[in-house]
Design a protein that fits this description.
The complex is a heterodimer of chains A (98) and B (542). Chain A is α+β, with helices and mostly antiparallel strands and 98 residues long. Chain A contains two helices and five strands, in the order βββαββα. Chain B is of the alpha+beta class. Chain B has four domains: 105 residues, Alpha-Beta Complex (Sulfite Reductase Hemoprotein, domain 2); 154 residues, 2-Layer Sandwich (Sulfite Reductase Hemoprotein, domain 1); 71 residues; 136 residues, Sulfite Reductase Hemoprotein, domain 1 (2-Layer Sandwich). Helix content of chain B is 37%, strand content 18%. The radius of gyration of chain B is 23 Å and the shape is globular. The chains are: A alpha+beta (98), B alpha+beta (542). The site of iron/sulfur cluster (SF4) has 13 residues of chain B, from loops.
Chain lengths: 98, 542
């Protein structure tokens, strides 16, 4: 699937396009098919996202998994600071990143 | 320490106001990211993997306790409770919000700090010896010259858009503690026939094409220091490869022209410039010098009670000989076993500031090895300092050991990374600490970068590790034999790369080989230089 990501303009936080809005959680990302460029242009103009881009990802039983390691690190947070990731209480969350 | 004059303060305050307006316009949508990016970068604000990143300049790595305290407070108030000290003797915050950035710059300006010239193709923060003004082995304090260069280079219209970034280091000891010859310009203050002057090395650097700077002039009289520097830059500014980012650094120009031809052109430019009044008046240097005058050192005990073995070990590794025999410089390690090299919490930063205030004439230094120095510490106070450091998890006795490795942020934070650096550092320090091998290995400089940009100085490591991307999986290249000290050399790659587990095994193997083959007092680097790469390759790949 193709999903959209970028950083929140105000906070810099990593965000994912859920079809209507931008979410902090990659699992909320939606498949944009061939409409990626169009949505990106519109959302960037609305200043809801900074430097957005389209990536490949896979929908698995456990959740959505970006194809590239860099986007997987972005999806959760620094692997060396589990306390600062989106799932600080779940050490296993790191398992699918690397 | 240098203190701002009215002009410096106005300049910095004006920049904060200007940036506040720029950030506001970006947030209101009056500027696009393409328009805003160069403006934010001029103020040290990058966009990284998880948030904006702010890089704060610490000129020649020197700061006072008030400034250090402010850095700790910013970490708590605007970041997530910590900061990262870098090989550029700077500090980076990893979790900055655009809407807070101007407030942070304003907080910094209150303590005479800023983030200007920490990005972009300008002359960057000038680096120097972290023991400057304290070390027994130095000729004089190099920082007044670094400050003179900083003032000349700040906002210099001719050098705002160089072909590429430009880094200068200034030292004044035979021992090179600032990787001087791996800078675009390395300046060593030297003495010749009773006169003080500057020796110039030009065209060093790391990155994708590492080069050791050749010496182009062995003595420039001090009243021509700026003129000569400017001549070096003018030739670069004229001929540097603006067409190709990867060939744009001065090292490529010096390499392609040849050191001799580059020098000839610099000398020609220099001769032409000598009567143009480029050099700041001598009074400017005389105005700067008192800021770096020695504090009033007091005589006191010169020996220590070393009965506590842990204390003795820390003193052995983490103190450096001071020019006054009742003092030492003490190194605060930011490399606890299993920790993240260079990271310190807001609280730890404030504790270091407090210790500097109480015990080190209010001064601290940031080392390029991502540690902190208390430069002027009375021998009599060492035990109290060590005790306080231990209580704050800042007392690791590991300076210059394998556990004192440099690691760049890598793929955990950096948008340019291929692979993670920090987990390697953590695992290696845990492993070597647990096996007790660290102490046996003695001085061993391990340096890790997460990509070819070489922010972690891997080319200059006795052992270097470079993260590469192998079909989307992290992979690591091992290299051996680098040094950034006075015996400077570039490390050579051992052969095919390794997985994360594999490269840790590989480090184990090459250090075992060293322990088996070393003679006398040889360091790892000395043994490597004597026996060459072949035995190491055999140990790794056969
Ligand atoms: C995380 C954001 C960072 C980015 C985007 C970044 C980017 C870069 C780039 C692009 C280069 C190569 C320049 C060239 O060869 O022309 C470079 C070099 C370098 N950076 Fe970084 N860097 C970052 C963080 C750091 C950190 C944290 C440190 C210190 C630990 C650092 C220290 C250096 C050094 C020492 C060099 C080599 C200087 C040279 O090539 O002569 N950088 N960086
Ligand atoms: S070496 Fe590469 S990965 Fe490491 S900080 Fe520099 S640019 Fe990032």
């Amino acid at each position: 699937m193709k999903i959209l990501t970028g950083n929140d303009l105000r906070t810099g936080a990593v965000i994912w396009w859920d079809g209507e809005n931008w979410s902090l959680y990659v699992d909320n990302a939606t498949d944009v098919g061939e409409n990626g460029e169009e949505i990106l242009a519109r959302e960037e103009a609305l200043r809801r996202v900074n430097v957005p881009y389209i990536i490949e990802a896979e929908a698995t039983e456990d959740g959505i998994r970006p194809a590239h390691i860099k986007d997987r690190v972005r999806a959760l947070g620094p692997t060396v600071r589990p306390d600062l990731t989106l799932q600080p209480k779940n050490p296993e969350a790191l398992d699918w990143i690397i | 320490m240098y203190a701002y004059d009215q002009y410096d303060q106005q300049m910095v305050d004006a920049r904060v106001a200007e940036f506040r307006d720029q950030a506001r316009r970006r947030l209101e949508g009056k500027l696009t990211e393409d328009q805003f990016k160069p403006l934010r970068l001029m103020n040290g604000l990058y966009l990284q993997l998880h948030a904006y990143m702010l890089r704060v300049a610490i000129p020649y790595g020197t700061l006072n306790s008030r400034q250090m305290t402010a850095l700790g407070d910013i970490a708590d108030k605007y970041d997530r409770g910590y900061g990262h000290f870098t090989t550029r003797q700077n500090l980076q915050y990893n979790w900055i919000k655009l809407e807070d950035a101007a407030d942070i710059l304003a907080d910094l300006a209150k303590v005479e700090m800023h983030a200007i010239q920490t990005s972009g193709n300008c002359i960057r923060n000038i680096s120097s010896d972290h023991f400057a003004g304290a070390a027994k082995d130095e000729l004089i304090d190099p920082r007044p010259y670094a400050e003179l260069l900083r003032q000349w280079s700040s906002f210099h219209p001719e050098f705002t858009y160089l072909p590429r970034k430009f880094k200068i280091a200034v030292i004044a000891a035979e021992k090179d503690r600032a990787a001087m010859r791996l800078h675009d310009i390395g300046i060593q203050i030297v003495e010749k026939d009773g006169e003080i002057g500057a020796r110039f090395y030009v065209g060093g650097g790391m990155g994708r094409t590492p080069m050791i700077a050749p010496m182009i002039r062995d003595f420039v009289p001090l009243d021509q220091l700026i003129t000569y520097s400017e001549a070096c830059l003018r030739v670069y500014n004229r001929y540097g490869r603006r067409d190709n980012k990867y060939k744009a650094r001065i090292k490529i120009l010096v390499h392609e022209l040849g050191a001799e031809e580059y020098t000839r052109q610099v000398e020609e430019e220099f001769a032409h410039m000598l009567d143009q009044g480029v050099e700041p008046p001598r009074e400017e240097l005389e105005r700067i010098k008192p800021f770096f005058a020695d504090p009033a050192f007091e005589d006191g005990p010169k020996t220590l009670d070393r009965t506590d073995p842990d204390f003795a070990l820390w003193v052995k590794h983490n103190t450096h000989q001071h020019k006054h025999d009742s003092y030492v410089s003490a190194v605060i390690s930011l490399k606890p076993v299993g920790g993240i090299p260079g990271d310190a919490t807001g609280e730890q930063i404030r504790i270091m500031a407090q210790l500097a205030k109480q015990y080190s004439v209010d001064e601290l230094r940031i080392m390029h090895t991502q540690n902190v120095v208390l430069p002027h510490v009375k021998i009599a106070d060492l035990y109290a300092i060590w005790t306080a450091l231990g209580a704050a998890d800042l007392g690791a006795p590991n300076m210059d050991s394998i556990e004192d490795m440099i690691a760049c942020p890598g793929l955990d934070y950096c948008a340019l990374a291929n692979a993670r650096s920090i987990p390697l550092a953590q695992r290696i320090s845990e492993r070597f600490d647990a096996s007790g091998k660290t102490e046996k290995l003695g001085e061993l400089k391990l340096k890790i970068s997460g990509c070819i940009n070489a922010c972690g100085h891997h080319h200059a490591g006795h052992i270097g590790i470079l993260g590469v991307d192998r079909k989307g999986v992290e992979n690591y290249q091992l290299s051996l034999g680098g040094s950034e000290a006075e015996d400077v050399s570039l490390a050579k790659i051992t052969g095919p790369g390794f997985t994360e587990d594999g490269v840790i095994e590989a480090v184990e193997k090459v250090t075992d080989l060293y322990l088996n083959r070393r003679e006398g007092e040889e360091r790892f680097l000395d043994t490597y230089r004597r026996i060459g790469m072949t035995p190491f390759k055999e140990a790794l790949y056969d």
